[in-house]
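Continued from yesterday's entry.
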Amino acid sequence: MQPFADERTDDVFNGRHRKDVPESIARRAARQIDILLAATKLEDCRIAGRGRIAKRQNTEPPTFCCNTEGRWWLTFEWQFGKAVNIKLEDTG
């Protein structure tokens, strides 16, 4: 199980500049990812989502999401007590 689903999310978390991610989004997403990685219960992930996380419909395995800002979302799976396959997505 990989903590990150793609290179963009890994770069953002590790502070590597990406032209396709605004700096303010990258900073906020990195903080949220840190919270997701530290979570030991799914309920802990609500802190990253400013009190809200949502289960995405029709996903297998179940996938959850929390808003980073505007059209930017973090999606992740919850498996064996931790967030995995975390991905920063631009839905715009």
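--- second protein ---
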Amino acid sequence: MRGGAGTALVGSHEEVADRIAEYHALGIDEFVLSGYPHLEEAWWMGEGVMPILRRRGLWQPPDAAQGRGESRTAAFAALNGST
């Protein structure tokens, strides 16, 4: 079990993307996400939420950042708007 602060993002793909966008607007640009069961939650996020964030200009695949000479170790690091 992990200690520390945390919150749950629950809702449709659009609603979860909206919450992430709200955090981004507050200056939060890196997230540690987890869900259970892991595989299903990763799929749900990757296939449902990430495309919405990409359309909104809040996320890009890590390989796209590397193509511009940037180094990104986590996909959500691209949320900082400096891309």
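The chain is about 45% helix and 0% strand. Residues 71-75, 77-83 have pLDDT under 50 and may be disordered. Will compare against the first tomorrow.
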